[in-house]
């Protein structure tokens, strides 16, 4: 059975490089900028920006499920060690939760936009702030996996294959 | 006459000047004691996080301007989806996302240069592209400034289209602008891959890679 799986390269991946960190560009950037544009739109009374943040939020929600799929595959091949195992667990849990939370937020926004695209209640901006904070936490956890524990880097994969970690 | 003159001048032109002084050490040594195992005075590098914003905002800006340009083709689909859309809304995303991208990318490049100054790539590594670490860093550094220049120029170009040249038109962008955007996707993809190689292959600013290179046992050094 195992020989049916594609061979893994020196990043311990069946493809050239990690894809998850590329897909998350579109979750992080779009969700955070949606909150920023909402804030600016409310403060400067520029409802035009609400439309911009709606589309960004919708895109972030679509992207997060792609990010989760690649994240699961790459997490399964990451061979975490030490405390990175716990970080990866929390990162996975928050990642799936964010999928639900962003979907809910986008659904709520869809209804608000259908009713009146020119206004945005403060409660929504508040919810956006909370979700943005959660995304930043998730970013820091993901950062720790790569920048501290070096998961999927050539050096760590080599050490893992030699049984050093 | 001329050859004699050349013989006099040539050594001055081509002989390396003797240094008036020898620099004592590489400037990185002046701050080396303040840096962590990852070669930074802080735990997580900043540049790769700002990159999310630069790339995400640029790509989505262009994608939505394409959507705005192709509006006549897609409006039936959106009507079917019960998702109210306006062409102007799509172009608003194209403009404001690019504007945000342009502003943020100055910080992305600044952080990148600071972190490149303290980069210590793993020795003896050749990347998937067949490049050494210095070549990769030079391409990524110079390319980064070039990309910032292009993004800024495109933002100005986009602004003129929005507020002057095409302000009364349904399609707010020129086809050439969208084509340049598409070429930029390819350039950014290549450029981003160089950056990813700095991390995943050359181990720049990755604590675990640097500790392994220093001969540490990760079981104790990074429990």
Can you give keywords for this protein?
heterodimer; A: mainly alpha; elongated; B: 223 residues; 9 helices
Characterise the protein shown here.
- Chain A has five helices and no strands.
- Chain A has 165 residues and is mainly alpha-helical.
- Chain A has one domain.
- In chain A, helix 1 (20-43) packs antiparallel against helix 2, helix 1 packs antiparallel against helix 4 and helix 3 packs antiparallel against helix 4.
- The longest helix of chain A has 32 residues, at 84-115.
- Chain B has 223 residues and is an all-alpha fold.
- Chain B has one domain (45-214).
- Chain B is 68% helix and 0% strand.
- Chain B contains nine helices and no strands.
- Chain B has helices at 2-14, 28-31, 47-69, 71-80, 87-117, 133-165, 175-200, 207-213, 218-221.
- In chain B, helix 3 runs antiparallel to helix 5 and helix 3 runs antiparallel to helix 7 (175-200).
- The longest helix of chain B is centred in the C-terminal third of the chain and has 33 residues, at 133-165.
Largest interface: A-B, 47 and 47 residues
- Please bin the fraction of helical residues of chain B: 55-70%
Counted beta strands of chain A: 0
| Number of H- or I-type helical stretches of chain A | 5
Mean pLDDT, all residues of chain A = 94
Distance between the termini of chain B: 76 Å
Report low-confidence residues of chain B grouped into runs of 5 or more: none
Q: What structural category characterises the helix and strand content of chain B?
A: mainly alpha
Identify the overall geometry of chain B.
flat
Strand content of chain B: under 5%
Q: Characterize the largest beta sheet of chain A: strand count, sense, and whether it forms a barrel.
A: none
Oligomer: heterodimer
């Amino acid at each position: 059975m195992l020989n049916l799986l594609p061979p893994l390269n020196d990043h311990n991946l069946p493809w050239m490089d990690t894809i998850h960190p590329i897909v998350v560009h579109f979750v992080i950037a779009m969700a955070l900028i949606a909150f920023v544009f909402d804030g600016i739109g409310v403060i400067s009374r520029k409802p035009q920006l609400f439309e911009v943040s709606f589309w960004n939020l919708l895109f972030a929600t679509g992207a997060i499920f792609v990010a989760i799929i690649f994240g699961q595959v790459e997490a399964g091949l990451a061979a975490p060690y030490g405390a990175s195992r716990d970080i990866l667990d929390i990162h996975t849990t928050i990642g799936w939760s964010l999928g639900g939370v962003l979907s809910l937020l986008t659904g709520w926004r869809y209804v608000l936009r259908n009713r009146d695209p020119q206004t945005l209640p403060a409660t929504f901006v508040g919810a956006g702030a909370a979700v943005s904070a959660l995304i930043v936490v998730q970013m820091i956890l993901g950062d720790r996996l790569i920048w501290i524990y070096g998961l999927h880097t050539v050096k760590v994969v080599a050490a893992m294959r030699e049984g050093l970690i | 006459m001329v050859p004699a003159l050349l013989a006099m001048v040539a050594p001055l032109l081509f002989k390396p000047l003797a240094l008036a002084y020898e620099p004592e050490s590489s400037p990185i040594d002046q701050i080396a004691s303040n840096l962590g195992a990852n070669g930074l005075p802080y735990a997580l590098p900043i540049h790769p996080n700002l990159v999310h914003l630069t790339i995400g905002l640029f790509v989505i800006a262009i994608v939505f301007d394409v959507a705005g340009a192709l509006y006549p083709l897609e409006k039936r689909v959106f009507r079917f989806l019960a998702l109210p859309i306006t062409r102007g809304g799509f172009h608003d995303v194209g403009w404001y996302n690019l504007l945000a991208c342009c502003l943020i990318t100055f910080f992305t490049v600044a952080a990148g240069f600071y972190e490149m100054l303290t980069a210590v790539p793993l020795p003896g590594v050749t990347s998937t592209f067949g490049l050494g670490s210095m070549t990769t860093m030079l391409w990524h550094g110079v390319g980064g400034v070039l990309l910032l220049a292009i993004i800024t120029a495109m933002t100005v170009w986009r602004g003129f289209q929005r507020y002057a040249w095409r302000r009364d038109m349904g399609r707010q962008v020129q086809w050439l602008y969208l084509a340049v955007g598409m070429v930029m996707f390819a350039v950014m993809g290549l450029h981003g891959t160089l950056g990813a190689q700095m991390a995943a292959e050359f181990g720049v600013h990755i604590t675990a890679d640097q500790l392994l290179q220093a001969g540490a046992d990760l079981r104790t050094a990074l429990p």
